[in-house]
Amino acid sequence: MELCTVDSHITAIDHHLLGVPGVGVTYVVQGERVALIETGTALTVPRTLGGLAQLAIRPEQVEQIICTHIHMDHAGGAGYLAMALPRAAVYIHSSSIPYLVDPTKLLKSVRRAVGEEAWPLHGGIQPLPIERLRPAETLHLDLGRDVVLEAIATPGHSPDHLSFLDRKSGGLFIGDAAGLAMDQLGLAFPVTPVPTYDLDAHRQTIARLRALDLPRIYLTHYGPHDDVAFQLDRAQEQVEALAALVDVALADGDPDLVALAARWLPYPADGPAALLARSWSQMSVAGMLRYAVQRRQGERN
Ligand SMILES: [Zn+2]
């Protein structure tokens, strides 16, 4: 898909995240006014703008650009999108606002996390003036025609992670709060990245999402899914499997990140999804290892 109608008031634009179709979307939510959810990276912005033009949405009609969290595949394109959409304010958790004003630290951290091979696929970040930014954790946005979006805190994947409940459909824009499910690529796994993954918070978030009894989730990676309980169960199982793998490796001493990643998530050796699967899987193992090591150090102190 390039453009996919998800609901009467929601369209997904496949912006070819990391150069591959089926990996990432920007959602267009339309009431009387228009909001975007997720920005992709700087490199995906032209496709997103192309999608808006195809939908006959003028740049001035977009009033909100909403990011679930600070990672570059969710917020990296915010600056360039804001340049093209002159009336739009960018919403992200207030703790992450400084990283979009001065992205230097964020760029360094992402480069370390995703690895040198995947790094060039992420583009740069256009800094945003503080006047264009708004805290998203208190978001209650009425777009007109009964379209209302509400923020829910869903930390774990990252501490600033928010999801956005669409009151009209009951569905949740879930970002990376549970697992990814990229059906076209045959890949489904939770991402537990360095440097701020928190297993305890993630477990609580998944339990909270289960309790919401959602009819539908809108994944950034990738698309709408109605089998919510299945998706949450699978994400939980995969997280626990990774946590167990990491515990055993730490007990044995000197864990091998690459070998662990391949054991946790058997990913394709080549093809369009190979690089991203390898990068995200290794980043997840690194994130779980870091969490487990810090936990142990905390227990000793
Ligand atoms: Zn993320």
Got a strand count?
15
Q: How are the strands of the largest sheet arranged?
A: 1-2-3-4-5-6-7
The outline comes out as globular
Q: Determine Rg (CA atoms, Å).
A: 18 Å
**What composes the largest sheet?**
7 strands, mixed
Question: How large a portion of the residues is in β-strands, by DSSP E?
Answer: 15-25%
* Number of H/I helices: 9
Residue share in helices? Answer: 25-40%
Q: CATH homologous superfamily, by name?
A: Ribonuclease Z/Hydroxyacylglutathione hydrolase-like
Structure description:
The termini are far apart. The chain is 37% helix and 22% strand. It is built from nine helices and 15 strands. Strands 1-2-3-4-5-6-7 form a seven-stranded mixed sheet, with helices on one face. The longest helix has 27 residues. The chain has one domain: 4-Layer Sandwich (Metallo-beta-lactamase, Chain A), CATH 3.60.15. The chain has 301 residues and is of the alpha/beta class. A hairpin with a 3-residue loop joins strand 14 and strand 15. It binds zinc ion.
